[in-house]
Amino acid sequence: MASQNLLFLGIGSDRYAATQSVRTLLNCSDARRANVKLPMNMVNTSSHRNLAAYSVCLAPMVSSWLDRVIASDSALSGLGVLNEYAGARFQAPYMDVETSPEAGQLAVIFRESVASQLKAGESAVPFNALMMVEQDGLPFIAGWVEQYGLEDWLDRLITVAVLPVWHLLAKHGIGIEPHGQNMVLIHKNGWPERILIRDFHESVEYVPSFVREPSWVPDFASLEPHLAEAPLDDYYAMSSVELLRELVMDTLFIYNLAEVSHLIASFYSMSEAAFWQRVAKHLDDYAKQHPELESRLEELGYTQASISTESLMTRKLTQSKAECHHRIPNPLHAGSRGIRSSQSDLQQ
Q1: 154-202 pLDDT, tens digit each
Q2: Is 283 helix (H, G, I), strand (E, B) or coil?
Q3: Which strands, in side-by-side order, build the sheet including 191-197?
């Protein structure tokens, strides 16, 4: 500090608290103010929880892109974005964005808070609250299921939480990663109303030939020039539609709905097989309502007998830097809708 290599900026007036998203801080002084996302030098699940240097200042471009797409399509009116509206990083002349270990270690992303997006009468819970069991031994959703009935409430949940994300993929060719706390369920007294999605700076993907409006894709290289010659699959642009399908089905179905199906089968008179039949019916109805998307849905291949999924535990235990995958039975496969895979099969 005496040599001014380190400058003390003082203590801010607002107080912050940690959240279940380990890098994200909640403003306790005013919940309507931004969440602050900071890098942490730790591994959680299979990922190093720093901030990828290239993504920090691109975050607002990604958020604006998603906002534009959502605003253009009334079918996405129930999908909201928690905008990552600002990002900043420190980069000394000796730091290379792609290779320097220090890159992204001193950075911040500012994201709109959930509280700032709520309308009158609305409340919010992270989607992974729906799979929890309380200290009294009852599911978190027990009161809601009792009030509305299991089937009606579940049908509404699928309509609100699954179909907008699916439409964004099927029609617009954009894959997002809405697992756990990255999807926020907005409800009125337990009745699902809409969803908010977040955390896009590293986890939005598209295939150039499959995205519906190529001209709307941000010019990422204008801010991060090294992306201009970047190979596919390294950043936002993917080489195959299969990878988009995997991203969405991994997070939305395997790491979200599989847990919900297991909880419902454990506490209510609906088997996991019946749960997945209900999800499949909603997707079948969606396909019938959108015949113009038939070829795009076929290209996604979401009803094939088995699908590839990321092996998070394998990658963590082996400390592999490469992607690890394995094949699992697909609960949406038309030939096996009477015999659905269990939650443990999907996540093993």
Answers
A1: 999 999 999 999 999 999 999 998 888 889 999 999 999 999 999 888 8
A2: helix
A3: 79-81, 191-197, 183-188, 123-126
Structure tokens, 130: 């729906």
Rg (CA), the chain: 21
Q: Which residues pair with 107 in a beta bridge?
A: 89
* Tokens found for residue 348: 């093993």
d(CA 89, CA 104): 6
Residue type for position 179: H
CA dist list (Å): 202 to 76, 93, 243: 22, 24, 15
Quickly list DSSP for 116-154: GGPPTT-EEEEGGGGG-B-TTSSBTTHHHHHHH-HHHHH
Tens of pLDDT, residue by residue over 63-119, are 999 999 999 999 999 999 999 999 999 888 888 877 787 888 889 999 999 999 999
CB atoms within 10 A of CB 149: 11
pLDDT at 342: 46
Q: pLDDT for 246-276, tens place per residue? A: 999 988 998 899 999 999 999 998 999 999 9
How far apart CA 89 and CA 271 sit, in angstroms, is: 49
**What residues contact 291, with CB distance under 8 A and at least 6 apart?**
none
- 78, 220 contact by CB (below 8 A): no
Nearest to 87 by CA among 54, 59, 112: 59
**What counts of helices (H) and strands (E) characterise the chain?**
11, 15
- 31-54 confidence digits (pLDDT tens): 999 999 999 887 776 667 778 888
Burial class, 199, CB count within 10 angstroms (exposed 0-12 / middle 13-18 / buried 19+) = buried
- 8 Å CB contact between 76 and 170: no
Partner residues linked to 205 by β-bridges: 175
95: phi then psi, degrees, rounded to nearest 5: -90, 130
Contact 78, 160 (CB under 8 A): yes
What are the structural domains of the chain?
16-347 (1.10.510.40)
